Structures are given as structure tokens and as C-alpha cells.
Amino acid sequence: AGKMAEVQKLCNTKSLRVRDAQSGWSALTWASAKGHHEVVKFLLEQGGMEAELEAASQVPVKPAEEARDEDSPPQPTVSTTSPLHWAAYKGHAEVLWTLLLHGMSPLALDSEG
């Protein structure tokens, strides 16, 4: 309960678009990597997914080595981090499922691939 009270307080004073200066991680990434399911749900309800998508859209996409023809699928964009991948890597199934249900793509790549 203490974590939620602190998160709620911070969400009232700071934007979800704020990222950690060293890691570049968002609050949603941190909560996902640490397995804080209730915090993840709260952040998603507060617009955390939109903040992640906005951040991902600002990262340059790696250029394709070969030109893509009309019939090939589009290449995924590359963002600096992915809450979904961190939740999977750390084994936080409930967080992973919540992120998927909120539309985070398992096909999106982050800086780790």
C-alpha cells in the first residue's frame, strides 16, 4: 500500500513522460521490471502506455539494410527500453499479461532486440 500512495503522489506532481536521467527508464518500465503489478495497472490507467508510445516514436528507427518490397511486413520500431520485455525477462507473468492486455506489442523491439 505504501508504494501505491507514493506513486499516486508522484503522478499528481510529475508527468508520466519523465524518464530516469541515467537509465532512460520510465515509471512504467521500473514498475514492470520490479513486478509491481498494482503500480503497473495504476500507471496504465493514468496514461502510462501513451507516454511509452510517445517516447518510442521519438527514438530513431534503425534503417533497414535492404529496401522493403510491398509484400514484406513492416519492420518494428526500436525504442530504448520496453516494459514488456523487462517484465518477461524478470518473470513477472501478471505484469506481462496486463501490459499485453493494454496493447503493448510483443513484436516491438527495444535496444536489446
What can you tell me about this protein's structure?
- By secondary structure, this protein is mostly helical.
- Helices cover 49% and strands 4% of the residues.
- It has helices at residues 2-13, 27-34, 37-45, 48-57, 83-89, 93-101, and strands spanning 78-79, 109-110.
- Strands 1-2 form a two-stranded parallel sheet.
How would you summarize the topology of this molecule?
Elements lengths: L1 H12 L13 H8 L2 H9 L2 H10 L20 E2 L3 H7 L3 H9 L7 E2 L3
Parallel strand pairs: 1-2
Helix pairs in contact: 1-3, 2-3, 2-5, 3-6, 5-6
Give the key terms:
globular; two-stranded parallel ribbon; 113 residues; 6 helices; 49% helix
Short description:
This protein is mainly alpha-helical and 113 residues long. The protein has helices at residues 2-13, 27-34, 37-45, 48-57, 83-89, 93-101; strands spanning 78-79, 109-110.
Radius of gyration: 15 Å
- What structural category do the secondary elements indicate? mainly alpha
Distance between the termini: 34 Å
In which order are the strands of the major sheet placed?
1-2
Largest sheet: 2 strands, parallel
Number of helices: 6
Q: Average pLDDT value? A: 75
Order of helices and strands: HHHHEHHE
Shape designation: globular
Q: Report helical residue fraction.
A: 40-55%
User: What fraction strand?
Assistant: under 5%
> What is the β-strand count?
2
Low-pLDDT residue spans: 60-67
